[in-house]
Amino acid sequence: MEDVVIKAENVGKYYRLGQINTGMFYSDASSWFSRKLGKEDKNLKVGETLGDKSGFWALDDINFEIHQGDRVGIIGRNGAGKSTLLKVISKVTAPTKGRIGIKGNVASLLEVGTGFHPDMTGRENVYLNGAILGMKRAEINQKMDEIIAFSEINEHIDTPVKRYSSGMYVRLAFAVAAHLDSDILIADEVLAVGDAEFQKRAIGKMNDLSHKDGRTVIFVSHRMNAVKSLCKSGILLDKGKIVLQDDIDKCITRYQSNLFDKKINEDLSHYNNEFFDLTGFRLVNENGQEIDGAIENGDKAFVQIELDMKKVHNAFTTGYAIYDSEGTLMYWSYQTDIYDENNNVEEGHNVLTGEIPSHFLNEGEYYIYFSASLHFIQWFVNPEEDSPCLKLSIMGGLSESPFWTIKRPGVCAPLLKWDVKNK
Amino acid sequence: MKFDDYKWDTVIEAKQNPFALNIREIVEYKDLIYLFVKRDIATTYKQTILGPLWYLFQPIFTTIMFMVVFKHVAALSTEDVPPVLFYAIGTILWSFFSSLLTNQARVFYANKDIFGKVYFPRLTVPISLIFSELTKFAIQFVLFIIIFVVYLFNGYGAYLSWRLLLIPVLMIWLILMASGLGLAISSITTRYRDLAKALEFFLAMFMYATPVVYPLSMVSGKLRILFELNPITAVLECFRYACFGVGNVSLSTIMLSAGCTLIFVSLGILLFNKNEKDFVDVI
Questions:
Q1: Do A1 and B1 lie within an 8 Å CB cutoff?
Q2: What is the mean pLDDT of chain A?
Q3: What is the number of domains present in chain B?
Q4: Chain A residue with the nearest C-alpha to that of B45
Q5: Which domain holds residue B171?
Q6: What is the secondary structure of B179-238 as a DSSP string?
Q7: CA angle A161, A163, A165 (to 5 degrees)
Q8: Taking CB atoms and an 8 Å limit, are B117 and A114 in contact across chains?
Q9: Once rounded to an integer, what is the mean pLDDT over residues B128-157?
């Protein structure tokens, strides 16, 4: 094919783990000497040697071709290497090995508003930000009105941006980025900003750019809906390797089927910390017996958390977050949601049981993540990051009603009372 | 088709020529350099009372201070040059040098946020720093010229000649030395941040080891050799020669300083290139 615009060949990116150095010249020098002399490095942990634990390949042997006008979605779990790949393609960081050829100029929106200076006015920042992204001044002059109109900043354009609301700030920043003239557009989660109304317009704009102008677009997002609507083909990454390169629907299906597998039934001691040991995280039924996670729509199920508290703190909050199979958060629930003096977690063994409402979630698969924190102070286990997971499948239709034995559309499927009066 | 059969506009590779300077790309980004300079100057004095007058405040008060301490208390020679002029040019040049050097030495750390997010030729930032500092220097130099002219009208007998043409050359020399050294250091400050602080302190000390507030002619004996080894000495002495026609710097000192500058610049470019590729992962 003649129209290849990006070709990656054996691209790899190696990161050293943890601290790059000990931060002090003396210790670095002594580590270096120890290595040279073949002695044990006292700055490493006992038994640790450089080479085995000191790094990992964030990208490993990546090969792909992207053609003119392609709209490619890059998907994968956190840490799969998506952002690293974008950074390498957009030249923010160099690959450790391999090479990438690019035809045409690349504009990358790894984060909107890069280089905005709070003391400068909106207009001045448009010039600066535009220039950072590679626009010429004449180009910006020409597009200024369009940018101002799109951002809806209007008369505030000559006010320093530090007086802007965060919404205005983001709108202006996106407007600049969206008006870049480039052959290839690389975007990383830029749409995850602003209010819903603006997000809609942002996706619309991205769609215009790719569909109407035939621009090549590479897009990374966790929001499968956005990826689906924008992209035609996909690259699925896992642990720095390409798992699948196909059309976007296949990639998304594959991604979702793999998404939650790994964390279920893992070793809980991994989450122990100075405040508590997590000794149990399971689903139980009304009688307190553990269940395997498959229930009928009308069954009662409970999330049970067992904690051995080593320290107590009155801001201690624990509970769970529940996501659907697309990764959309359903709700969070905490033991502190309803204030009750008898519900305090105390030193020693604690068993907390929280109800999952029956007749509330729709038929489908759900993933429940453990959560614990000192409220507004510190996370112990953040459900959005690294957290143990339980799988819950809700089967059966809406209710016993003969009308509704099949799955109802929508996220929730509550059974609500109706009052019907007959004259 | 094989990789090499395509006509790529850009090829991203792990290894690059360590001395590469993509001048064409930098010229393409000249608007960005202009905007960086404008930002640096405009934002330094936003929400201040005196605004850009601060540029003049600093040399004026330093000069007065030097007058009191070095002329009246210590009674150091200024080689027939009116002390005001002698100290003014000394402090203007030194502050240009030290401020350019410290800013270059911090270039990665100070710009880590934008460097980590978007690509543009990294060298635009050090270049814009040069122009920002030059702007500040130009304003201060105009003040110096005004005082100079006032002295001329009041009977100061310095005659103007071709020597003044040396000034642009000397400025380029000073810029290359400060930037080269600064960029070489910048690659280390990404790892050891206290080095930037140490540098500031060191430069404040080093001013007294450089003929800024006294002429080189006052230094004699074995100490003189050390002073002549100091690469900034030659520039300062030459500058005073260009302005006032005084100073006695030997050709060997000049050659040595030029040699040092060449080394600093090569080292600066080498380390800057090496660093810009992956400092994002280090900082």
A1: yes
A2: 81
A3: 1
A4: A119
A5: 45-282
A6: HHHHHHHHHHHTT-THHHHHHHHHHHHHGGGTTTSS-GGG--THHHHHHHHSHHHHHHHH
A7: 90
A8: yes
A9: 90
User: Which one of B2, B24, B32, B38 would you mutate to disrupt binding with A, by most A Cβ within 10 Å of its Cβ?
Assistant: B32
Would A22 be classed as within a structural domain? no
Return all residues near A6 (Cβ < 8 A) that are at least 6 apart: A64, A65, A66, A89, A100, A101, A102, A103, A184, A216, A218
The average pLDDT across A200-206 equals 78
Among B11, B39, B192, the residue with its CB nearest the CB of A128 is B39
Mark yes or no for CB contact A119/B115 under 8 Å. no
The pLDDT of B15-40, averaged and rounded, is 84
**Which residue in the set B13, B35, B282 is minimally distant from A128, CB to CB?**
B35
Return the pLDDT at B99. 94
Check: CB of residue A120 under 8 Å from CB of residue B42: yes
- Cβ separation B9–A92 shorter than 8 A: no
Task: Kindly report, residue by residue over B37-88, the tens digit of the pLDDT.
Answer: 998 888 887 777 777 788 888 899 999 999 899 888 888 888 778 889 999 9
Nearest CA-CA distance, residue B201 and chain A, Å:
18
CB pairs under 8 A between A and B: 120
Q: What is the mean pLDDT of residues A346-364?
A: 88
What CATH number has the domain bearing residue A358? Answer: 2.70.50.60
Mutation target to probe the B interface, by most B beta carbons within 10 A, among A3, A120, A162 is A120
Residue A319 belongs to a domain = yes
Q: How far does the CA of residue A218 sit from the closest CA of chain B (Å)?
A: 15
Residue A118 lies in a domain: no
- Structural domain including A316 reads 268-395
Percent pLDDT > 90 in chain B is 36
pLDDT digits (tens, 9 = 90+) for A342-353: 778 888 999 999
* CA-based nearest residue to B130, from B3, B265, B18: B265
- Write the pLDDT tens digit of every residue in A238-252: 888 898 888 888 888
Q: Does residue A248 fall inside a structural domain?
A: no
Give the number of domains in chain A.
1
Cα Dmax for chain B = 80
